[in-house]
Amino acid sequence: MLNCNIFRHIVRWISMKYDPPVYGINFFSRNKIRVVNVIGRRIPMSKIEGKELFLTDNLNQNVELIQRAFYHTEDLVVESVVFGHKRGQLLYINSLVAKDKVMDYIIRPLKSSKVKHALESLQVSEEKQTGTVHKLVSELLSGSCALLLEGEEKAILASVPVEEKRAIKEPDSEHIISGPHDGFGESMATNMMLLRKRIKAPSFKMKKYVFGHLTGTNVALMYIDEVIDQKVIHHIEEKLNSVDLQELQTSTALLEVIQDNKHSPFPQALSTERPDRAASYLLEGKAVLIVDGTPEVLVLPTTFFAFYQSVDDYTMHWIVGSFFRILRLISFLIAVTLPAMYIAIVSFHPEILPLGLLYSIRTSIEYVPFPPILEAFLMQIILEILKEAAIRLPSPIAQTIGIVGGLVIGTAVVEAGLVSNTMIVIIGLTAIASFAAPFNQMAVISRLLGFVSMVAAFLFGLFGIAIILMAIIIHLCKLESFGEPYFAPLAPLKTNEMGDFVLRKPNKNGESPS
């Protein structure tokens, strides 16, 4: 006990010598807590050793405590106000609040109000009170103003965030021929509104999460309670409750943390910027995750075949929609196997080609100094570089780079004898097939798998391609998306879900059209 008292007096002496005391809750005494310098290390936080800091009835100490919690940042504005006979301070982050709203809805009403309670005089839609420093800091960082009054142990919080958001428009990456042309934006509230407009069921629920110790990013989990499988939603909630991140900026970063298989190249949640697409999946019993600050909404769980379905399928005749679905799945096989098939046939199995076609191919590759595998790799890498350059450049220049660059480079490599004419055709068809996927996530995966299949074809011929395809199918059959089979309804086989799978079934009374 004596040693504890000596240590306590030493720490108090250090705190008084190097830093004035700021009070909160119990730390050294029963009623108050000091924020101290311990061996030269400042601890100006809203929590100390896991203990919550509370406001006191001393106005100056409360203001100093908040300033320390913000490390004395210069954009924390502190304005003096008077309410009745009480002196007060209004605190807010300069860049996070709407200045006109602060003046019109808070400062002027406080000066002219005759009511006894300051909370009643504020003219804002969201107002509340808190006595904890941690909650007050969190609200200030969310665009609220905090009113501290002399003799009051609670702060009055008024939400007046600055509302800067872009207009609702169709996403550039998910164009459709017919149907709605609106899209998600960076505002979580706007995105939720777009979904609520489409789904007016009372069982359409929202659960809010906050991730990121530094960013405090809001995340909304939305689902229709009477439609979704409760096992699925429990699995998703368990994943979300286990998240512990320092910062969260994008929905993709969140997906990497919560997905079931972190080493699979296949996307285990569908990312979309289209409200109509997200709403249709919600009506099918899926859930969506909305991350504040990003327009990409995650749909989960999902399946492999969902990435080859488009909103256009439901805005045209079911036969036409089914035809395009089949075409997209064929395009996946072309993107994965076409260059590999060419390499395998030219290198190992030329006898399976018709004689005229064989002579034509042999003539085109006669003076090419490289084997087919190097030809294919060279052209695929050039294609990826052109595509990446076109994405990063402004739109008018990007179109020029894509067209002129492809023509010039393609012609130059053929005339130089580095690549055959046949390989140019093969790589061109492969690129077009990969771009047929409605989602860029799967288009990239198909091109990456194409590299793997080319290596297998170079080593083992057609047997290598068969091995790669078998490995892909086995992996897809084993893969799960938030507890649900990724290759459903094929593995496991679900005949009752075959109606809207590869073929789009026609709409009938009493059934959902999507």
Automatic annotation (TrEMBL):
GO cellular component, one term: plasma membrane
Gene Ontology biological-process annotations: spore germination
Membrane-topology descriptor: Multi-pass membrane protein
Keywords: Membrane, Transmembrane, Transmembrane helix
Subcellular location: Cell membrane; Membrane
Membrane-spanning residues: 326-348, 393-412, 418-436, 448-474
Similarity comment: family membership: Belongs to the GerABKA family.
Name of this chain's protein: Spore germination protein
Organism of this sequence: Halobacillus litoralis
